[in-house]
Amino acid sequence: MTTQTISAASHEALAKQFKPMHGVAATNLNDLRQFLYAWFTHFEHAAPTDFYLSHLDDKNMLVAFPGMAPLASHADFAGWYENLLAQTLWNFHDVSAIQIERTAPQEYLISFVVDWYGEVKPDSDQLAGWQSRSDSFFYHHRLRQTWTVKAGDRLLIQRLVVTGADTPSPISA
Question: 58, 49 in Cβ contact below 8 A?
């Protein structure tokens, strides 16, 4: 690929968007993408709750799902996650349309669409809440997630807001 057809200023602006602001060891966009995929892979393998809690800011946390009261503490999240494991047999997340914007030094806004597939247990006492079709135990929910993430010694989610997939991204394309 050649960039000779664009001006030097455009060429440099394109490259500078990826220049590390805090040295080569600092968090970059690929670290954030890797974290995003690891987060969902851990769900798919029913990881211990501690994995998630180590990446949620217990002092400044908001996790919001449609139709539910927001989760504002590690205890709230642990209860939600234990319920997820109790009600479902498996789940898978197909992540797309990832957008990442640096909002402050070491702070990022991440927005993406996730197709969430899974199977609710036939004996679930919350069957209707999980199903996407009343004639199947398999579900598919298409959602937008928007995260606020702080970087430091580890990536820490402060806000995780889930809405319908048709919700516009807060990050301009």
Answer: no
Cα(55)–Cα(37) distance, rounded to whole angstroms?
Answer: 13
pTM: 0.85
What's the half-sphere exposure (Cβ side, CA atoms, 13 Å) at 98? 13
Domain 27-164 has CATH 3.10.450.50: yes
CA distance 6 to 152: 36
Q: CB-based contacts of 47: which residues, under 8 Å, 6+ apart?
A: none
Neighbours of 151 (CB within 10 A): 19
pLDDT tens digits, 126-165: 888 888 888 999 999 999 999 999 998 899 999 999 999 9
